[in-house]
Design a protein that fits this description.
The complex is a heterodimer of chains A (about 110) and B (about 120).
Chain A lengths: L3 E2 L4 E5 L4 E3 L2 E2 L8 E5 L6 E5 L10 E2 L10 E3 L8 E6 L13 E6 L1
Chain B lengths: L3 E4 L2 E4 L4 E8 L5 E7 L6 E7 L2 E5 L6 E7 L2 E7 L7 E8 L11 E2 L3 E5 L1
Parallel strand pairs in B: 2-11
Antiparallel strand pairs in B: 1-3, 3-8, 4-5, 4-9, 5-6, 7-8, 9-10, 9-11
The chains are: A mainly beta (about 110), B mainly beta (about 120).
Protein backbone atom coordinates (compact mmCIF):
# COMPACT_ATOMS: atom_id res chain seq x y z
CA UNK A 1 0.00 0.00 0.00
CA UNK A 2 1.11 3.54 -0.68
CA UNK A 3 2.02 5.01 2.67
CA UNK A 4 3.89 7.96 4.07
CA UNK A 5 5.63 8.52 7.37
CA UNK A 6 5.72 11.84 9.15
CA UNK A 7 8.15 11.13 11.98
CA UNK A 8 7.53 14.26 14.05
CA UNK A 9 4.23 14.80 15.85
CA UNK A 10 5.27 18.27 16.96
CA UNK A 11 7.87 20.66 15.62
CA UNK A 12 8.61 23.92 17.43
CA UNK A 13 10.59 26.53 15.54
CA UNK A 14 11.45 30.11 16.34
CA UNK A 15 10.07 32.85 14.13
CA UNK A 16 12.56 33.61 11.38
CA UNK A 17 14.25 30.21 11.61
CA UNK A 18 14.13 27.63 8.80
CA UNK A 19 11.41 24.99 8.82
CA UNK A 20 11.56 21.42 7.54
CA UNK A 21 8.62 19.09 7.93
CA UNK A 22 9.55 15.54 7.04
CA UNK A 23 7.61 13.12 4.89
CA UNK A 24 9.02 9.78 3.77
CA UNK A 25 7.28 7.41 1.40
CA UNK A 26 7.73 3.69 1.02
CA UNK A 27 6.95 2.77 -2.55
CA UNK A 28 8.65 2.94 -5.92
CA UNK A 29 8.00 5.01 -8.98
CA UNK A 30 7.30 8.71 -9.18
CA UNK A 31 4.63 9.28 -6.57
CA UNK A 32 2.40 12.29 -6.90
CA UNK A 33 2.59 13.53 -3.31
CA UNK A 34 0.70 16.43 -1.81
CA UNK A 35 1.00 18.54 1.33
CA UNK A 36 -2.20 19.68 3.06
CA UNK A 37 -2.44 22.26 5.84
CA UNK A 38 -5.06 22.75 8.55
CA UNK A 39 -4.89 26.11 10.33
CA UNK A 40 -6.73 26.50 13.62
CA UNK A 41 -10.48 26.85 13.01
CA UNK A 42 -10.01 26.68 9.22
CA UNK A 43 -10.73 23.97 6.74
CA UNK A 44 -8.16 21.45 5.62
CA UNK A 45 -6.71 22.63 2.31
CA UNK A 46 -4.11 21.71 -0.22
CA UNK A 47 -0.84 23.57 0.31
CA UNK A 48 1.18 22.27 -2.58
CA UNK A 49 1.70 19.27 -4.83
CA UNK A 50 4.85 17.67 -6.16
CA UNK A 51 4.09 18.04 -9.82
CA UNK A 52 3.49 21.79 -9.74
CA UNK A 53 6.96 22.59 -8.36
CA UNK A 54 5.68 25.92 -7.13
CA UNK A 55 6.19 27.81 -3.90
CA UNK A 56 3.10 28.51 -1.83
CA UNK A 57 3.28 30.88 1.16
CA UNK A 58 7.05 30.51 0.95
CA UNK A 59 6.91 26.72 1.25
CA UNK A 60 8.53 24.34 -1.22
CA UNK A 61 8.78 20.57 -1.37
CA UNK A 62 11.12 18.55 -3.51
CA UNK A 63 10.72 14.90 -4.30
CA UNK A 64 13.97 13.07 -3.49
CA UNK A 65 13.74 9.61 -4.99
CA UNK A 66 17.06 8.53 -3.53
CA UNK A 67 15.90 9.26 0.00
CA UNK A 68 12.23 8.56 -0.80
CA UNK A 69 11.33 11.85 0.80
CA UNK A 70 9.08 14.82 0.09
CA UNK A 71 10.02 17.20 2.87
CA UNK A 72 8.27 20.56 3.20
CA UNK A 73 10.60 23.49 3.67
CA UNK A 74 10.47 27.20 4.31
CA UNK A 75 13.57 29.34 4.84
CA UNK A 76 12.08 31.76 7.38
CA UNK A 77 9.18 30.73 9.60
CA UNK A 78 6.35 33.14 10.30
CA UNK A 79 3.89 33.01 13.19
CA UNK A 80 0.99 32.42 10.81
CA UNK A 81 2.62 29.17 9.69
CA UNK A 82 1.53 27.51 12.94
CA UNK A 83 -0.81 24.71 11.86
CA UNK A 84 -1.16 20.97 11.30
CA UNK A 85 0.57 19.72 8.17
CA UNK A 86 -0.34 16.44 6.48
CA UNK A 87 1.55 14.64 3.75
CA UNK A 88 -0.80 12.83 1.39
CA UNK A 89 0.26 10.00 -0.93
CA UNK A 90 -1.49 8.81 -4.07
CA UNK A 91 -3.52 5.65 -3.63
CA UNK A 92 -4.32 2.98 -6.20
CA UNK A 93 -7.60 2.30 -4.42
CA UNK A 94 -8.84 5.86 -5.09
CA UNK A 95 -8.73 6.80 -1.42
CA UNK A 96 -7.50 10.22 -0.38
CA UNK A 97 -5.53 9.46 2.76
CA UNK A 98 -3.11 11.28 4.99
CA UNK A 99 0.00 10.77 7.04
CA UNK A 100 -0.31 11.15 10.79
CA UNK A 101 0.51 14.84 10.56
CA UNK A 102 3.00 17.21 12.14
CA UNK A 103 1.93 20.09 14.30
CA UNK A 104 4.13 23.11 13.54
CA UNK A 105 4.38 25.60 16.39
CA UNK A 106 6.15 28.87 15.63
CA UNK A 107 7.66 30.46 18.71
CA UNK A 108 7.78 34.27 18.91
CA UNK B 1 -18.34 28.79 -6.19
CA UNK B 2 -15.24 26.89 -5.04
CA UNK B 3 -16.42 25.83 -1.63
CA UNK B 4 -17.73 22.76 0.04
CA UNK B 5 -20.48 23.72 2.46
CA UNK B 6 -21.43 21.58 5.45
CA UNK B 7 -24.42 21.96 7.74
CA UNK B 8 -24.87 22.11 10.61
CA UNK B 9 -21.60 23.44 12.02
CA UNK B 10 -22.33 21.97 15.43
CA UNK B 11 -24.64 19.14 16.48
CA UNK B 12 -25.41 17.64 19.85
CA UNK B 13 -27.47 14.48 19.78
CA UNK B 14 -28.58 11.78 22.16
CA UNK B 15 -27.80 8.13 21.63
CA UNK B 16 -31.37 7.40 20.55
CA UNK B 17 -31.69 10.32 18.15
CA UNK B 18 -31.66 10.29 14.36
CA UNK B 19 -29.94 13.19 12.65
CA UNK B 20 -28.35 13.98 9.31
CA UNK B 21 -25.26 15.85 8.23
CA UNK B 22 -25.37 17.64 4.90
CA UNK B 23 -22.70 18.55 2.41
CA UNK B 24 -22.98 20.54 -0.81
CA UNK B 25 -20.60 21.49 -3.61
CA UNK B 26 -21.20 23.25 -6.90
CA UNK B 27 -17.81 22.73 -8.53
CA UNK B 28 -19.01 19.89 -10.74
CA UNK B 29 -16.87 17.43 -8.82
CA UNK B 30 -17.69 13.78 -9.39
CA UNK B 31 -16.16 12.31 -6.26
CA UNK B 32 -17.30 13.07 -2.72
CA UNK B 33 -16.02 11.83 0.61
CA UNK B 34 -16.87 11.60 4.29
CA UNK B 35 -14.14 11.67 6.91
CA UNK B 36 -14.09 11.45 10.68
CA UNK B 37 -11.46 13.47 12.54
CA UNK B 38 -10.71 13.11 16.22
CA UNK B 39 -8.76 15.77 18.06
CA UNK B 40 -5.08 15.96 17.07
CA UNK B 41 -5.50 13.08 14.60
CA UNK B 42 -5.56 13.01 10.81
CA UNK B 43 -8.88 12.66 9.00
CA UNK B 44 -9.96 9.00 8.67
CA UNK B 45 -11.75 8.08 5.49
CA UNK B 46 -15.26 6.69 5.95
CA UNK B 47 -16.98 6.67 2.55
CA UNK B 48 -16.24 7.55 -1.06
CA UNK B 49 -18.85 8.30 -3.71
CA UNK B 50 -18.06 8.42 -7.38
CA UNK B 51 -20.66 9.57 -9.90
CA UNK B 52 -23.28 9.38 -7.13
CA UNK B 53 -22.55 5.73 -6.39
CA UNK B 54 -20.92 4.43 -3.25
CA UNK B 55 -17.53 3.11 -4.25
CA UNK B 56 -15.74 2.72 -0.92
CA UNK B 57 -17.02 1.94 2.57
CA UNK B 58 -14.16 1.70 5.03
CA UNK B 59 -15.96 -0.85 7.21
CA UNK B 60 -17.96 1.90 8.88
CA UNK B 61 -20.61 0.77 11.41
CA UNK B 62 -24.14 0.71 10.04
CA UNK B 63 -25.24 3.43 12.44
CA UNK B 64 -23.63 5.74 9.84
CA UNK B 65 -25.53 5.70 6.57
CA UNK B 66 -24.36 7.80 3.62
CA UNK B 67 -26.55 9.01 0.81
CA UNK B 68 -25.82 10.90 -2.40
CA UNK B 69 -29.14 12.29 -3.72
CA UNK B 70 -27.48 14.06 -6.66
CA UNK B 71 -24.08 15.11 -7.93
CA UNK B 72 -23.95 18.18 -5.67
CA UNK B 73 -25.23 16.77 -2.40
CA UNK B 74 -23.93 14.26 0.10
CA UNK B 75 -25.67 13.31 3.32
CA UNK B 76 -24.61 11.28 6.32
CA UNK B 77 -27.50 9.84 8.29
CA UNK B 78 -26.81 9.12 11.95
CA UNK B 79 -28.76 6.77 14.18
CA UNK B 80 -28.07 5.23 17.58
CA UNK B 81 -24.62 6.71 17.86
CA UNK B 82 -22.27 6.17 20.76
CA UNK B 83 -20.35 8.81 22.73
CA UNK B 84 -17.13 7.63 21.08
CA UNK B 85 -18.57 8.75 17.74
CA UNK B 86 -18.16 12.34 18.88
CA UNK B 87 -15.76 13.97 16.42
CA UNK B 88 -15.41 16.47 13.61
CA UNK B 89 -17.02 15.08 10.46
CA UNK B 90 -15.53 16.39 7.26
CA UNK B 91 -16.94 16.29 3.78
CA UNK B 92 -14.69 16.66 0.76
CA UNK B 93 -14.98 16.59 -2.99
CA UNK B 94 -12.59 16.16 -5.89
CA UNK B 95 -12.83 16.50 -9.65
CA UNK B 96 -12.56 12.75 -10.05
CA UNK B 97 -11.04 9.83 -8.23
CA UNK B 98 -7.31 10.30 -8.34
CA UNK B 99 -5.84 6.87 -7.98
CA UNK B 100 -2.09 6.88 -8.43
CA UNK B 101 -2.22 10.32 -10.03
CA UNK B 102 -3.61 11.71 -6.75
CA UNK B 103 -6.16 14.48 -6.88
CA UNK B 104 -6.82 17.61 -4.87
CA UNK B 105 -9.58 17.29 -2.30
CA UNK B 106 -11.61 20.35 -1.31
CA UNK B 107 -12.84 20.16 2.25
CA UNK B 108 -15.76 21.64 4.08
CA UNK B 109 -15.43 23.29 7.48
CA UNK B 110 -16.84 20.21 9.13
CA UNK B 111 -19.64 19.40 11.56
CA UNK B 112 -18.58 19.17 15.19
CA UNK B 113 -20.69 16.29 16.52
CA UNK B 114 -21.19 15.56 20.20
CA UNK B 115 -23.07 12.43 21.23
CA UNK B 116 -24.44 12.53 24.76
Amino acid sequence: AQRVTQPEKLLSVFKGAPVELKCNYSYSGSPELFWYVQYSRQRLQLLLRHISRESIKGFTADLNKGETSFHLKKPFAQEEDSAMYYCAPPNRDDKIIFGKGTRLHILP
Amino acid sequence: DTEVTQTPKHLVMGMTNKKSLKCEQHMGHRAMYWYKQKAKKPPELMFVYSYEKLSINESVPSRFSPECPNSSLLNLHLHALQPEDSALYLCASSQDLGGLMNTEAFFGQGTRLTVV
